[in-house]
Amino acid sequence: MSAHIEVIALRALLAQVGGDREMQRRFVHDFVQLWHSRSQRLAAALAYPFPDAEEAHVVLLSIRSSSTMVGAVTVEATAAMMHDALRDGDIAGSVRHITRLNEVGELACSDLATMFALQL
Predict the structure, then answer these.
(1) 17: helix, coil or strand?
(2) Measured by CB atoms within 10 angstroms of the end CB, which terminus of the chain is less buried, N or C?
(3) In the chain, which ranges are continuous DSSP H helix?
């Protein structure tokens, strides 16, 4: 179906929303629509010379949890690497993965938009 989306997770999301496909669709739509603001917020939080590790932590948690729910496994894994580096106090290490996170995030959003026939 999609190289960037795990269908089993999408089925789990459907079960979590009581089988309401429209609610699942809205959740996916929100994930896609919020992607740019989340990635921009993360970039701002990690920006040199005054990174805000606490803000980056909050944004990465948001990205990780919502990615898990929509089955964006590569997005979640990349955000997890960034989160691990951040927890270790390695802001530069976290920043090194931001380009990859943006790439896989865009791909996941594109796949989700196609799967759900979203108007972007």
Answers:
(1) coil
(2) C
(3) 7-16, 21-45, 53-70, 73-87, 91-95, 98-115
Q: Which of 2, 67, 63, 61 is nearest to 28 (CA)?
A: 67
The set of residues, in sequence order, having a beta carbon less than 8 Å from that of 41 and lying 6+ positions away, is 55, 59
pTM over 0.85: yes
Query: Rounded to whole angstroms, how far apart are CA atoms 62 and 76?
Result: 10
Name the least confident of 10-19, 22-31, 66-75, 80-89. Answer: 10-19
Instruction: State the Cα–Cα distance between residues 21 and 63, nearest whole angstrom.
Output: 22
The three-class DSSP label of residue 109 is helix
Are 79 and 60 in contact by the 8 Å Cβ rule? The answer is yes
